[in-house]
Request: fold
Amino acid sequence: MRSNYDFSKTKGRKNPYIKYMKQPITMRLDREIIDYFKSLSEETNIPYQSLINLYLRDCALHQRKLKTTWTK
Reply:
């Protein structure tokens, strides 16, 4: 194996699968929500983060909107 490689003549290209990659985010959820999805995870053998993603995807695909009122 060479100790040095010359990459100056190579052209970079974008990852063609970037649109299929998941976006990592930080989200604050109630402990009860996490417990609920973790219990579903044990029943279905699907990681709880995947279950949350599937649920949110279903809401987005069907354009479900939350019907709630905020009280002070």
Summary: The CA atoms of residues 39 and 48 lie 8 Å apart.
